[in-house]
Amino acid sequence: MQEKGTISIHTENIFPIIKKFLYSDHEIFLRELTSNAVDATQKIKRLASLGEYKGELGDLTIDVSVDKKKKTITISDKGIGMTADEIKKYINQIAFSGATEFVEKYKDKGDEQQIIGHFGLGFYSAFMVAKQVEIQTLSYQEGAEPAAWLCDGNTEFEIKTSKKKERGTDIILHIADDSEEFLEEHRIQGILDKYSKFLPVPIRFGQKDRQVEDGEDKDGKKKWKTVKEDNIINNPEPLWAKSPSELKDEDYLEFYKELYPFSEEPLFWIHLNVDYPFNLTGILYFPKLKKDFEVQRNKIQLYSRQVFITDEVKDIVPDFLQLLHGVIDSPDIPLNVSRSYLQSDSNVKKINGYITKKVADKLGDLFKKDRPSYEQKWSDIGVFVKYGMISEEKFEEKAKDFTLVKNVEGKFFNIEEYKTEVATNQTNKDKSVVFLYTTDEEKQHSYLETAKKRSYDVLVLDGPVDSHFINHVEQKYEGVTLKRVDADVIDKLIDKDEKKESVLSDAEKEKVSAAFKKAIGDDKNNVTVEPMATDDMPVTITLPEFIRRMRDMQAQGGGGPMMFGEMPLNLAVSVNANHAFTRKIVEAESEEDQVALAKQAYDWALLSQGMLSGKNLTNFINRSVELAVK
């Protein structure tokens, strides 16, 4: 048998297009060819199970091998094989899918989703790295003759009789000069580890060394020797392909170690398994994030029938859940997936919604069934939940009950619980419930102490998304206002319209105001002398709340325009008319002494806000020493 002909295509010069543009990364050729080998193997298993193939299946392991001298890479399977006619049908007619026809023929007998590969452009990815490709194949069909196909990267091919003795197909790539990197074993091992780690048929890539015990030496110590064993690179039965009822916690933890060898144990996980209206399996793990969540992205791996596609799962997984780890496998997503496909495909949108619902349901169950355990995990999962509340409306609807806030005493509440908790004591004159919060308990300690004296409760909101979460709470919860505990004097933060009398006369107020204005030396700062509680700070410095929030967002990685970090700050300086130190300023012997004391009080206020540094801090310390020894 010998035949020559021309490959049937509908686009001129398709091979240069394949070589350069079929995939952005040329290493993908090995994924396509091993997937096709798995497809052929799955087909022979399926035919045997249906009684349409009576022979022995034998060892179905797929072999990948490299010959540096001959400059070849070979992918060998013991699958269904092909006849010469099938080669002409499936290989020579680009874009005709052998797998599609096979599925159509056997779809009524079930398990059609087991078929992975699609002969067509996937096979022709071989020409991205090969100057010549040959196929040596023998069909499973009784009496079939072995056939060989050769093509050197143009539209001409040759078919002839092969010497192949065993059922299956060998794809032999004669590597081009500009692709010899793929003749390095470590390079092939890396590609197989990346794309074929969980293929459903064993993939063998040569052999590897393993250390085994070899008795004991004369001192009774164990001896070891090196033995050779098959280098099986994949786990054909990954955990997500099994039923959750078969699995224990230990199984999930072991699989997590397999995926992420150097990570801490996850907090918990969700096993996904749905077959309508789309097919999806997978396991999503909640890792311990703390506050470094940005570096954790791209940890979810996307597969199609156990073939790795990508770890960039945007559009398939909601943005806030890209912080999770794990695996998603869906046959409804093609191997050559593109961003435009993901953005437009209806199944992808359904998958996105399904995953959001499953995560919300899991968190809700944990909260209801074991709230103490849920609260212990909150420092890790709080980022997911708050981010989800802000960015996904459907998630927010479910998450309201299990989104928690924590106060400085370490107690947890959901938003409605907390509103009820503080409403009696922290409702202002406008009937709005004020949630006080701190972003830094150490720096804002004096303000926390002042709030404590009023029996006010204070939340800790110091997480990476809390500046945005604060705005979200105010928008979604009517009658709730959030104010940072150091944003103003405490009686202005929760203004109950309670009037206080000043112990200073109007003339004394003017004297104090003048001293502070001269001490500050900046007309842009607004100085007021007001009656406050005697135990309030002598001077309080505040920023407008809008500017403060924008600066917080900017500090936490975005959201506030950069101009808020560059423009001069207009500070509000509130002097406590009823504080003993203010009386000391009034009674100072000279204007110079009044200004010096005002400067000291002003610097105290700056220091409490973390706004005193450099030369000004040094001058403050020296001045404090001088005042102490007078």
UniProtKB/TrEMBL annotation:
Gene3D superfamilies: 3.30.230.80, 3.40.50.11260, Heat shock protein 90, C-terminal domain, Histidine kinase-like ATPase, C-terminal domain. The keyword S-adenosyl-L-methionine does not apply. InterPro entries: HATPase_C_sf, Heat_shock_protein_90_CS, HSP90_C, Hsp90_fam, Hsp90_N, Ribosomal_Su5_D2-typ_SF. Transmembrane segments: none annotated. SUPFAM superfamilies: ATPase domain of HSP90 chaperone/DNA topoisomerase II/histidine kinase (SSF55874), Ribosomal protein S5 domain 2-like (SSF54211). It comes from the Bacteria. Keywords: ATP-binding, Chaperone, Nucleotide-binding. PANTHER family: HEAT SHOCK PROTEIN 90 FAMILY MEMBER. Belongs to the heat shock protein 90 family. This is Molecular chaperone HtpG. The gene is htpG.
